[in-house]
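Title: Comparing notes on inverse folding

I've been comparing how different people in this forum approach sequence design from structure. To keep things fair, I'm posting one structure and asking everyone to reply with a full sequence. Here's the target:
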């Protein structure tokens, strides 16, 4: 393990897809972020990537109530939907892997449905797959529908819970960065509100009038992200929410210790 340490990056579902249109990818955003990942890799950082589901997962999950587990009345449709969502997520994951490959990086996808069980931050599964020793293969995973050991049968393991466990349990993580789709960081109000201001330092006592597309989002939106990020910040000094469409800010943060965005404090 080199001295520069690890960076864990979450590509938000709203960054890499259009959340409102089923299976619509934002290739430009993926390409830009991948170029930044290449820069970090070239500078000797070891990377772990997690990405959200966006329109590849949330819309069908919502429609079939996947988050709440098995519903006997629509059991058959749900089981079909679970297979479909898992397949969609691998498709989206492959898009990110392909984009990295174009610029000379090898990434290995680890679908949680294959190695993790249970939902929330206490899910079970071996995280050693993320502890790569060097830079030649970047491990990448995502929010997914996973099996459960209880009567619910299945549920959604959020990328934010994966971010928490990876950041807390894999050694030498120096930065945990959540990349958002259309905003500079955590705001005082929803982005469409004229009074929305950027919160430069967020701690759990800050009041933000958060909102997320509850009609689409199935994993708790920004509230869950903030909850997990605050928990991560108890161990890791640099936990940030940044605008993924301005990926040069990642480099600025790494080089100078600060940038436009929200730093999360314990």
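Reply #1:
Here's my take.
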């Amino acid at each position: 393990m080199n001295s520069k340490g690890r960076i864990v990056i979450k590509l938000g579902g709203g960054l890499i897809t259009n959340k409102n249109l089923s299976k619509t990818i934002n290739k430009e955003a993926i390409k830009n972020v991948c170029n930044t990942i290449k820069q970090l890799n070239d500078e000797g950082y070891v990377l772990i990537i997690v990405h959200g589901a966006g329109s590849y997962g949330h819309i069908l999950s919502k429609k079939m109530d996947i988050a709440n587990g098995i519903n006997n009345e629509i059991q058959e449709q749900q089981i079909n939907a679970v297979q479909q969502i898992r397949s969609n997520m691998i498709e989206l994951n492959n898009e990110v892997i392909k984009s990295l490959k174009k610029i000379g990086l090898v990434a290995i996808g680890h679908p949680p449905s294959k190695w993790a069980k249970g939902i929330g931050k206490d899910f079970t599964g071996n995280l050693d797959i993320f502890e790569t020793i060097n830079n030649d293969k970047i491990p990448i995973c995502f929010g997914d529908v996973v099996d459960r050991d209880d009567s619910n049968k299945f549920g959604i393991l959020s990328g934010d819970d994966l971010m928490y466990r990876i950041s807390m349990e894999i050694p030498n993580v120096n930065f945990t960065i959540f990349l958002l789709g259309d905003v500079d960081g955590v705001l005082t109000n929803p982005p469409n509100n004229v009074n929305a201001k950027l919160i430069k330092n967020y701690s759990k006592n800050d009041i933000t009038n958060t909102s997320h597309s509850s009609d689409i989002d199935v994993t708790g939106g920004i509230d869950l992200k903030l909850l997990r990020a605050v928990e991560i910040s108890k161990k890791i000094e640099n936990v940030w929410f940044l605008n993924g469409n301005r990926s040069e800010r990642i480099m600025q943060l790494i080089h100078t210790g600060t940038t436009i965005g929200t730093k999360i404090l314990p």
